[in-house]
Specification:
alpha/beta, Diaminopimelate Epimerase, Chain A, domain 1, four-stranded mixed β-sheet, 6 helices, binds calcium ion
Length: 146
């Protein structure tokens, strides 16, 4: 069993998908979670590549947010698209990062990710409120790679 497989149980994954659905009731923004074990690249640069690979730059308002996690490296990145970055300062995600880190340090990965997602939904609500007839532009499933 790889680190990645043992990182979250099926139930944990279901809870994370449910959190994304919940968060996206607050905002037109689209949240995705990508998990892998390890990358040789800088985690931020690599998260940007994953963002492209997942076609996350294709949302109408450019308001996708990626939570990228490298389990073996004990690193994670929160990356917002340019529609968000235009409106907020670069430390916009810091409180969310800190919240997630607190849970991760205690080994509670599922709860850290869930709480992070819910907080991102609330933060985005101000700039990109949910509107009637909103489209789910990006799948809520967790994506993974080797
Ligand atoms: Ca949406
Ligand atoms: Ca979605």
């Amino acid at each position: 069993m790889s680190v990645k497989d043992s990182f979250l149980t099926k139930q944990d994954e279901d809870a994370i998908v449910a959190a994304i659905q919940e968060a996206e009731k607050n905002t037109s923004g689209e949240i995705r979670v990508h998990i892998e074990a390890h990358t040789e690249e800088s985690h931020y640069k690599h998260a940007e590549k994953v963002f492209q690979q997942l076609q996350m730059h294709q949302t109408k308002q450019r308001n996708g947010v990626l939570i990228y996690i490298a389990t073996q490296d004990h690193k994670f990145v929160i990356l917002g698209d340019e529609g968000i970055n235009k409106m907020v300062s670069s430390d916009f995600w810091n409180a969310t990062k800190n919240l997630m880190q607190d849970y991760f340090r205690k080994g509670n990965f599922k709860e850290g990710i869930v709480q992070g997602i819910l907080m991102i939904g609330k933060q985005l609500k101000e700039f990109f409120p949910y509107q009637e007839g909103d489209q789910d532009e990006l799948p809520n499933e967790i994506s993974k790679s080797e």
